[in-house]
Amino acid sequence: MEELKNYGHQHPLLMLNEEQLLGNGNGVVDCSRCGEKVSAPCFSCVECCGFYLHKTCAQAPLELNHPFHRHHPLVLLQNPPSSYTRCVCAFCDETCEKFIYHCSCGLDFHIKCALFTFNIAERNLKELEHVALEDPSFSSKNDGGNLGKCFACWEPLAMYTYFSLDCGFNLHKKCAELPLKLNHLCHRKHPLVLQFNSELLSCKTCLVTQERGFVYGCSPCELAIHIDCASPLPVIEDHQHSFTLFWRQNPFICDACGTEGHHVAFTCGTCSIMVHKKCISLPRIIQQACHVHRVFHTFFFHKEYFESLNCILCYEVVDTEHGSYFCADCNVIFHVNCALEEKACYCIVSQENEDDKSLDIPVNSITKVLETNDAGEATVIEHCEHKHYLMLSDKISEHGDKCCDGCLLLISAKFYHCLRCDFFLHKSCAELPKKKLFPKHSCYGKPFSGPKPFILTSDCMFKCVLCRYLSNGFSYECNECGDQICLRCPDLVLQDAVKISGHKHRLLFYYGNYEGQCSSCGRDLSYGASRCKDCNFHLCHLCALRPTRVRHKCDQHILALTYDKVNDYAKYHYCDICEKERDPKHWFYYCETCDTSVHVDCVLGKYSFIKLGSTYNEGNHEHPLTFVKKIHYYPECVKCGKRCEDLSLKCAELGCNYIAHWKCRYRW
Questions:
Q1: What does the pLDDT average to over 412-423?
Q2: Where is the Phorbol-ester/DAG-type domain (predicted)?
């Protein structure tokens, strides 16, 4: 037995062959350096303390001058640097837990990955000589292309012939045989050298940064090119016709996406188009989270088909002489890169389901029309959410300040009402469909998979997932996850532009992280905003939904949402409810008759969209409960013993004195 004293262990080590390894009863043990299963020949501690090393790990040099990283040596460390929260191998992208090769510039490798890539650079491929090759065209292991990616080029393993996964590495055969230097048309000053992308340079041709594996680079020029971008396939079949590789010195505009490309282009002579490599396989049909219908990719469009050529995501003009995604039903158009920017916001539709529009069929919530007027309007109806007939009216004064039981806003214009009970619906709320598709909704924890059907529901307390207000009006409830949306929010969610009374232009909804302050309330904007493209005007989601007319006990008249300061006297800039100072630049509610000015939040509070007097049947009380607020003698809450001066639930049964704060019964 060969004896060896080795770095990292206090006892001498003995070399074992396979028979000796099995004879020790230790046929399956892990290497104390790389953590992989040990196979003979290997080293074992003479004191039998359970320390084992692969022969290659035992003989690994303390410092490695790697041909793919010539700037600094790689130093063998027993543990990752203490400043790391997680150490990741720059070759296989897996976590390194102990014994790593580390470089001061931030590169880290497993021992086996550092030595394996060193052998590739030195053309020493003995450990791959007897490894089987898998042809992705015939391999039973292909599993639909879900094998992972090659550690060298980080393209899908199933794209080319690869070494069997039994070798411990994901590697294409061609990537093990790459030339170490390359003279390339896109960079004629210096040869390109195969190396690790330690400086995280973006590829000169596709502009994408590859953090792991190999690239061809020129250090003096700080330039990198991906392996596949340096030597793409000359002909690609992914179109009605073949695309052919065409090297260019000058930039070009891609006909598929309309953006600039560099050096590597693919052309279709039949169609006279030139595209990026990545645009060859653009999905033809996608479902985008910002539009209810499927959208189709096209290479060009005649302008007369569209009323507006603005992309509905960025609101910039789409050049229809180049590629875009469009919806022919709605005259909606997207830039290709806008539509595909966030993987979580679209899904690909197979061409077999191209014509499937089963989800688009609306279901009317008016179940029966009993009478109509001369104009064809339904004057008496049956509605799916109410048990009595409803009659059309426009006489608001006859009913006082009533709220719509659907959206909980004051009734206005035409509305339906019940002659037998205190039930009112705006005509627009009554005509809403029983089922509505919400394209922007993703059920919690699940990837976006297309529009979700929401069903119109009522008679329950809920918190709207968009405006976060509690309500007992109508809601749209997701069929899959149970999320509920109040009737005030869908217009903002489903429309790409909204018109509000407080601004002369239409407001466009911008998605994603957004910096700035709301012009209505002054709060910082975080995710998404309704913005005027022509003015420096921004609204948060809540302010875009503010009701224009409200009723409050502070004034006998209806208060109107007001957008401009009514007068310039500082003494008037106070709220008549809380008596605190009011910022004259922010929106407020105002009564012109009484000159009453109040903060928006003071009027709306937390419970503005709960109908007082309505019945609440949930919970464990034996009788139905009614919503009340500050009733005349302020009884004590049965839960906390304090006076019921806020929203409360009172028993509707005569003789039962049960009353409790809403917040004491339920913590929403």
A1: 89
A2: 240-290
Report pTM: 0.59
Strands 13-16 and 133-134: unpaired
How far is the C-alpha of 45 from the C-alpha of 304, rounded, in Å? 81
Domains 549-604 and 614-664 share a fold: yes
pLDDT of residue 144: 46
**222 in Cβ contact with 208 (< 8 Å):** no
Q: In the CATH scheme, what is the code of domain 614-664?
A: 3.30.60
Cβ-Cβ contacts under 8 Å for 566 (sequence gap 6 or more): 572, 590, 595, 597
Reply yes or no on whether the pLDDT at 611 is more than 90: no
Torsion, CA 57, CA 116, CA 127, CA 167, rounded to 10: 100
Domain spans of the chain, in order of start: 4-59, 181-229, 243-278, 282-348, 366-431, 549-604, 614-664
In three-state form (DSSP H/G/I as H, E/B as E, the rest C), the secondary structure along 227-259 is HHHHCCCCEEECCCCEEEEEECCCCEECCCCCC
Strands 181-184 and 162-163: unpaired
3-state secondary structure (DSSP) of residue 267? strand
What's the number of CA atoms in the CB half-sphere (13 Å) around residue 290?
26
Q: Find the range with the poorest average confidence among 312-316, 414-418, 490-494, 637-641.
A: 490-494
Identify any residues that bridge with 477 across adjacent strands, giving them in sequence order: 455, 484
Peptide bond into 433 cis (omega under 30): no
Query: By percentage, how much of the chain surpasses pLDDT 70?
Result: 88
3-class state of residue 406 by DSSP = coil
How do residues 48-100 score in pLDDT, each as one tens digit? 777 888 777 877 888 899 999 888 899 988 888 888 888 888 888 888 887 88
CATH classification number, 549-604, choose in 3.30.60, 1.10.3470, 3.40.50, 2.60.40:
3.30.60
pLDDT tens-digit map of 180-215: 888 776 776 788 899 998 888 988 878 888 888 899
Q: What is the secondary structure of 426-477 as a DSSP string?
A: EHHHHTSBSEEEETT---TTS---SPEEEEEE-SS-EE-TTT--EE-S-EEE
C-alpha to C-alpha distances, 297 to 240, 285, 608, nearest whole angstrom = 14, 6, 45
Contacts of 143 (CB under 8 A, 6+ apart): none
C-beta atoms surrounding 204 within 10 Å: 23
Strand, helix or coil at 187?
strand
- Return the closest-CA partner of residue 103 out of 67, 79, 71: 71
Burial of 269 (0-12, 13-18, 19+ CB in 10 A): exposed
Structure tokens that stand for 136 in this block? 């992705």
